[in-house]
Amino acid sequence: MIEVNKDEQKYAFLWDKESQQKNRYGDNIELTQEDNALRNISLNINGDLGIGENPNRYKQHGFYLNADNCIGCHACEAACSEKNDNPAHIAFRSVGYVEGGTYPDYQRINISMACNHCDDPVCLTGCPTRAYTKFAEYGAVLQDPDICFGCGYCTWVCPYNAPQLDPVKGEVTKCNMCVDRLEVGLKPSCVAACLGNALDFGVIENVPENREQSQAEIPGFPTTEITHPNIRFQQTKGSHHEMTRTDSMPVKYHREDTQKPFKPVVDEKSGRKKYWNFKALLTSHESAHVIFTLFTQATVGAFLILILAPLIAPETFLLFQDVSVYPPILIIIFVISTVGLYKLNMHLGKPHRFYRGFNNLRLSPVSREIAGVSMFYTGLLGAMMASWFEHEIAQVLFYCFAALGCLSGVIGLYYMYKLYRIPARPFWDHKQTGTAFLGTTLSFGGLILLIACLSLIPWPVLATQQLIPVLFGIIGLGLMIEGLGHILHAHDMKAATNEGAASYYQQVTQYGKSYILRNILLALNLALVVTLTFTEITSILDPAFILIIILVIGMLVMGLFGRSLFFVLVIPTTMPGAFFWKNQGFVDHARETGLAEMQQVGVVYERHHAFKVDELWQTIKENSLKDMFKHVVWILGGK
Amino acid sequence: MLFGRNKKNPIKIADKGIVKWNYSTCGYCSTGCAIEIGTNKDGKPVGARGVADADVNRGKLCVKGIFEHEVFESTGRGTTPLMRNNIQDEYQEAQWDDALGTMASEIKRIQDTYGRDAFAIVSTGQILTEGFYTLGKLARGVIGTNNYDGNTTLCMASAVSGYKRSFGSDGPPGCYEDFEHTNCLIAWGSNLPEQHPIIYWRFKEAQEKRHFPLIVIDPRVTMLAQNADMHLAITPGTDVVLMNALMHVILDEGLEDQDYIKANTNGFEALSAEVRNYDPTTAAGICGIDEDTIRHVARLYANAGVAMNIWTMGINQSTHGSDGVVGINNLSLLTGNVGKKGGTSLSITGQCNAMGTREWSSCSGLPGYRLLENAQDREDIGKYWGVDPEFFPKTRGLTQTDIFPAIETGKIKGLWLVGTNPMTSMPNTARIRKTLEKLELCVVQDSYLDVETTEYAHIYLPTAIWAEKEGVFTNTERRVNIIRKVKEPYAQSKTDLHIFNGLAKQFEQGRKMTFSDNFDEVFDEMRELSKGRLVDISGMTHDLIEQHRGIQWPYTEEQANKGEAPVQGGKRLYTEDATFRFADGKAKLIPLPFIDNNERPDPEYPFWLNSGRLVEHFHSRTRTGKIGNNNKYSPTPFMEINPDAAMEQGIQHQSYVRLVSRRGDAVVMAMLTHRVPRNMVFIPFHFFDCVNRLTLGLLDPYSRQPAFKQSAVRIESVNQAEAAQLNKESRTF
Questions:
Q1: Within 10 A of A610 (CB to CB), how many other CB atoms are there?
Q2: Are B63 and A78 contacting, i.e. CB atoms less than 8 angstroms apart?
Q3: Cβ pair A77:B63 closer than 8 A
Q4: Which residues from A are below 8 Å from B62, CB to CB?
Q5: What share of chain A is helix, strand, coil (3-state, %, to 5)?
Q6: Which residues of A touch B197 (CB under 8 A)?
Q7: Residue B58, C-beta contacts closer than 8 angstroms, at least 6 positions apart
Q8: Number of Cβ within a 10 Å radius of residue A632
Q9: Which chain B residue has the Cα nearest residue A603?
Q10: Tens digit of pLDDT for each residue in B146-188?
Q11: Which of A582, A593, A621, B174 is most buried by its number of CB atoms within 10 A?
C-alpha cells in the first residue's frame, strides 16, 4: 500500500458516504455480491499483496467534471504524467476546449478527460490480446501494456481517445484510475491536483459537495450509448448555440435550443476547394491496412472462385480443373496473401507477439478476423502444396484444405467487416463497409484470376472458353455492389448528424480530386467490363485487347485510392483538442516540418518495429507444450 | 461486464523509487509554493509534490511545479566557465579563478578608464535572497557602480514605485487570506488562472465557500474574465482614466470613508479636484467602459465594506504603470481598504524572488528598504559593512531600461548580467542586439549556456540552479520561505553566493569586508539589518522558516523571544492608523492627470499588440521550454487574432503570418479566437526572437518600466513553407 502523507488535505480524500443501487443506465453500482470470488483479492499492484480497506472497494467509481470551473491550467494532466512517469508525447488525461460567442461575449469551455472506465468497455471487447480487464475493484478498466502487441484497435473503438498508442514503445497504455491511491482512500492524482475545483471523483452517480448537477453530456462529449461511460458533468453556466473546436477536426457542435443536446455538425474549416492530397492519402500509417484488406479480400475471393466455381458450373470453369492451371494460380494467390499478412503483422508495435492476436476469440472481432484469415492462409497453403501431387491422399488433403480455406476465408472476411463497424467511427459504421469489402472480394478476386489466366494460358485457348466473359461478369458484379454502396454511403454521410458528415466534407474537399478520380475509375471499370463481356477478342493483337490492359490498370488505381480514402477519411468521435496539444493538424505539421525532432514538442514520428526473433524464441523456450495447451484452453474460455 | 483475473500479470504502476522528500520553495513565480522534491536512492530528483501543510499552496502545485524536478538535468546547462577576447571568437574553457580574475581586472580597467559608473550590473528576481544581499554588498560596497539594477524593472518596478509614492515604502500590505474575508474583488490586468494558478485556487476556494463579486478589468477575455461576475473590457493603457472615474463617482456620491481618510491620508483636496475632471461620461469615451458600468462598479466596490484590489502586469507594464498602482492605492485609501481583513491593495508579483530583490539586493537603494538618498541609511549600512558611507552614491543610478540606452550611446562599457535574458525579455530586440555588440566587457552569469545573451558575452559563468543552493525567497504576501539543497551544483557550476564572494576577493576592498560562504551567516546579517525596519525578519531563522513552511514578515526578534509563534497566514501591513512609512505616518493621495502617449493603432499599423504569459511557460523558456510536459502545450509562438479581422486579412487558422511594427517583424502561427477584440492581437512573451522584436516599450516616467502591452502592428502574409522553416530554426528549445 502506498503511504498517505500525514498532512494530506481534505480535498485529496474520497468522500462517499452513501451510494445508489443502480446507475442511470440501470447497471448495478455494487459490481459484485458479498460472496463473490472476485472479492477480497489483492490487486497485486507492483507485487504488493495487501488488500485495500476502502469501504467502497467493489463499487463502480467515476470522474466528475464541473465544466463551469475548469480553467485549462493543465495541472491534472501534469499530475497524471508525473505520477505515471509518462513522456511528453503520451498523456492519460488531456484538456481540450470548445469555444463560442463573439468578443467580449466569448466563452471557452475546457474539458478535462481521461478514461471513463465504462460499464461496457469497447476497448476490452475489441482488444485481440485480452490486455484489458474490468476489475471488480472500483470498476476500473485496466490495461496491461506487457500483453498488448500494439495493434491500436482499442484506440479506434474508444469514443473518448482514452487508450494511448505509443509509437515509440509500440504498445498502448492508459489511465489506471490511480487504483493504488484508491486503495488507501485517496482520490486519483489528477483530481487532487485540480486548481479550478473542477475535477472530482467518487462512487458513480454521487454528486460532490457543493455541486448540483450530474449530467452525462457536455458539448463535444460523444453519445453515452456506445459504452455507458462513468463520468458526470456539471455545467450550470449557459453556453452559446454553437461551440467550435480549435483543433483541425472539421467538426463543431450545434444545438437548436437550450433544451436540446449539442450535435456534431460540419465546420468547413478549409473551405470548399478540392485537392488531391496524394501524400497524406497514400503514405498514411494505415497503408498497412490498405494493403492487408485489399490483398486478403482479393485472395479470398480468388480462392473461393477457383475452388467453388468449378463445383457449380464445371463446364464454364473447365480450365480451373486443369492440373497445369490451378496449381500455379494457387501460388499466385498464396504470394499475394503472404504480402498482405506480412504488411499487417509488421505494422504491429510488437510484430513478434502476433500469436496473441487469438487471445480474445470469445469477444473480439479482431481475434476472429485474425483466426479466420490465418485458417484461410493455412487452407491456401495446404491446398497449394497438395495440388502439386497426384496421389490420392494428396487429393483428399487438397479438398480438406480447400474446404478449410473457403470456410475460414468467409468467416475471416465477415469479421473483417464486423471489426470496422465501430460506433465511434461513423464513417465506417455503415453497410457500405460491407458492400465495399464484398465488392472487392468479387472484383479483385476475379481480377487476380483474370490476370493469372492471361499469364498462364495462351489467348487462343482462352478465347474459346466462356471463362473470361464470366470473370468479367464477376468483376462487374463486384464493382456494382461496391458502387451502389458508395452512392448510399455518400448520401447518408452527407446528411449525417455525426462525425460522418465531417468525413464526407473531407472527402469532397481535402481529398476531393482523389475521390472524383476513384468514382470515375469505378464507373469506367464497370463500363469496361460490360463492354468486354460482350466483345469478342480473337487475338491479343486485336485493338480491343488493350481495353483489358486499361481495365487492369484502372482497377488497381481505383482499389488503391478507394481503400486509402476509406482509412484516411475516418473521423472518430474523440474529444476536442487544444491548439497544439491533441491537435492532429499540429501533429502533422510538426512531423512535416521537423519540429517533432525535438522531444519537448510532444510529437513523435510513426515508426516500424522490429520482429524480435530472440524475444519470441525466449517465450517458446520458457513455455512447455502443456503451457501452450493451457493457453489455448484459456482462450476458449477455460480457467 | 466484469472479467476475472485468471492469469493476469500484477498491475504495474510507475514507482519512481523515491526514498527522500526534500523541502524547498518553488523557483518559478512569486506565489511561493512550498514544494518537496523526491530523490531516489542515487540522490537523483525524480518527483515533486506540494507540501500539504504549507499555508500558501496546501499541497497543490501548478503544471510547472509538478515537473520542477526535471530542471536539474535539462539540456543547455553550463558546465564550466568560458572566456574569449572577442565576441566573434570561439569560447575557451577556463578555471574559476582565471575567469573571476579576468572579470575583476576588466571591471577595474573599465572603471579606471571611463569612471566607476561605466560598469553596470543587471540582476534578476530569480536567485536566493542571501545571494541578492551579497550581490548588493559587492555592487554598492566594493565595485561601487551606481548603475546596478534588477530585471524586476521589467515586471514589478511600477508596483514598487507606486507603493513608495502612496505608502512611503515598498511592501505589499495584503495576503492571500484576504480572499477569505473580502466582499468584493477587483482584478486589474491580472490573469490568475494563467499566471498564478495557485493564488487563483486560493481565491476559488474562498469564493466557493462564500460568494463575493469578482470584477475583472482586462482587454482580453481571459479565463478569469470569463468567470468574473463583471468583465470590463477596457481600452489598452487607459486604466488610470477608469480609476479616476470610479473615484469621481465615489466622491460624488459620498461613498468614501471620511474617518479613514482624515486619520490616514494627506492630499485629499488635490485628488478630489483632479477626479472632478473624470465624470463617467467623459471617462467612458476614453477607456471604453460605459458610464453605467463605471457607476455600478464604483458603488459595488465602495459599499462592499471590505474590498480588495489585485493587479499584475496589465497595470505595471504600461506607461502609466506607477500611476496605475497609485490609482489603485488611492481607491483603496479613499474607501479605507488598506491593512484590513479582506481590504487591501495587493500587487501579485512576478518572479519567485522579485520580493527578495526588492527588499535586500540594494538595486534601488540599500538593504532592508533603505534609501541612498537618506544620509542615515548610508551611514548605518556603511558602518555595518565596513564601507566609507561617502563611497555610496547619494541618489539612485540608472534602471535596467536606462542602462541599455547608456550602453548604446557609449556611457557604459561593461555589463554583468546575472540570471536574466534581455535578448528575449527586453522590448525592441533589434536595439538590444546592437547595444550588446558595443560592450567592451559583457559577463553572463547564468545556469544555462544556451541563453541567447551568451552570443554577446566575453565571460560566461555557469551557476547552480534553484535547489542546488540553499537560502530563502520572499513571496507576494511577504512570506519568507526556504530552499533546501536537493543536490550538488551541476558539473563545475557554482552558487551565485560563491561567485559573488569569489569576485569580491579579487578586490582589495572586498578582502577587507566580510563575504561569507555560509548562507546562515549571510541570513544573520540580513536579520540584524532588518531590526526595526518595515521588513523585520529578525525573529526568523532558516530552521524556523522550514518548520512553519514560511513566515510572513514582519516577525521580530522580540516576538520570537517572547515565545510568540509566527502566524500561519493573514499577516498584514498598516493595520493601525497612521502607520504608513512617511514621516507623519500618513499615506499620500496623489492626483493622476492622464496623458495618452501610447503608440496606438493607426491605418498603417491597425492592431494593438498585447503580450502576456502562458501557464505552462516561465519567462524566456530556458527551463519550461526544455521540459516536454510543460512545453508541449505551446511549443512554438502563436498569436490570438479575432476571426473577423482574420477573415478580412485572409488569415487561416493555424497558418503562419508575419507581424510588422515600427521596430521589426516576427513570424507567428495564427490562432483565430474571439478572446481578443477585432483590433488587437495577443502574443505570449516567452519566445525568443518573437514578440519583443515588435514591442516599443515606452517607459513609465516613475518606474522606468516598459509598456510591453501597448504597441501597434500590421499583419503581412508569408510563404508558409519558409515561415515553417524559420519557425523551426528559431527553436532550439
A1: 11
A2: yes
A3: yes
A4: 73, 75, 78, 195
A5: 45, 10, 45
A6: 71, 73, 75, 195
A7: A9, B50, B52
A8: 12
A9: B632
A10: 999 999 999 999 999 999 999 999 999 999 999 999 999 999 9
A11: B174
Residue numbers of A between 542 and 581 with CB closer than 8 Å to B: 578-581
**pTM of whole model > 0.90?**
yes
Q: Is A339 helix (H, G, I), strand (E, B) or coil?
A: helix
Cβ within 8 Å, pair A82-B675: no
Interface of A with B in 271-290 (CB under 8 A): none
pLDDT tens readout for residues A288-300: 999 999 999 999 9
H or E element that contains A633: helix A625-635
Q: Model confidence over A404-419: pLDDT tens digits?
A: 999 999 999 999 999 9
Q: Which three cell numbers stand for residue B438?
A: 558595443
Write out chain B residues lying below 8 Å of A5, CB-based. 49, 52, 59
* Residue in B with minimal Cα distance to A177: B13
A257 DSSP assignment: S
Strand intervals (E) in B193-300: 214-217, 230-232, 265-266
The answer to whether B63 contacts chain A (CB < 8 Å) is: yes
Helix (H) or strand (E) holding B480: strand B479-483
Contact B52 A8 (CB under 8 A): yes
Q: Closest Cα partner for A225 from A299, A123, A118?
A: A118
Cis peptide before B389 (omega within 30 of 0): no
Q: B564 and B555 in contact (C-beta within 8 Å)? A: no
DSSP state of A541: T
Instruction: Residue B178: name the closest of B310, B362, B361, B330 by CA.
Output: B310
Fill in the DSSP letter of residue A350: S
Express each pLDDT in B99-140 by its tens digit.
999 999 999 999 999 999 999 999 999 999 999 999 999 999
Cα-atom radius of gyration of chain A, to the nearest Å? 28
Q: Is A185 helix (H, G, I), strand (E, B) or coil?
A: coil
Q: Which residues pair with B681 in a beta bridge?
A: B609, B641
B700-716: pLDDT as tens digits: 999 999 999 999 999 99
**In the structure grid, which three cell numbers stand for residue A66, read together?**
464541473
CB A88 within 8 A of CB B632: yes
CA–CA dist A440, B420 (Å, integer): 65
Task: Give residues 185 to 204 of B whose Cβ lies within 8 Å of A.
Answer: 193-194, 197-198, 200-201, 204
A12 forms bridges with which residues in the sheet?
A: none
SS3 assignment, position B92: strand
Crossing angle of the two packed helices A326-346 and A287-312, in degrees rounded to 10 = 150
Task: Note whether A600 contacts B208, CB cutoff 8 Å.
Answer: no
- Do residues B133 and B522 make contact, with C-beta atoms less than 8 angstroms apart? yes
A143 strand-pairing partners:
A132
Q: What pLDDT was estimated at residue B4?
A: 43
Q: How far is CA A106 from its chain centroid?
A: 36
Q: What cell does A165 get?
A: 498508442
Cα B195 from Cα B709, distance rounded (Å): 16
Q: Which residues of B touch A41 (CB under 8 A)?
A: 5
Select from B196, B629, B642, B672 the residue whose CB has the most chain A CBs within 10 Å, as the one to mutate to test that interface: B629
| 3 state DSSP class of B503 | helix
If you ran DSSP here, which 8-state letter would residue A271 be given?
-
Residues 621-650 of B with CB under 8 A from A: 625-636, 638, 642
Residues counted in chain B:
733
User: pLDDT by residue (tens digit) across A69-111?
Assistant: 999 999 999 999 999 999 999 999 999 999 999 999 999 999 9
Candidates B9, B12, B203, partner chain A, best to mutate (most A CBs within 10 A) = B12
With contact defined as beta carbons under 8 Å apart, do A366 and A153 qualify? yes
Q: Is A339 exposed, middle or buried (0-12, 13-18, 19+ CB in 10 A)?
A: middle
C-alpha span between B265 and A201 (Å, rounded): 51
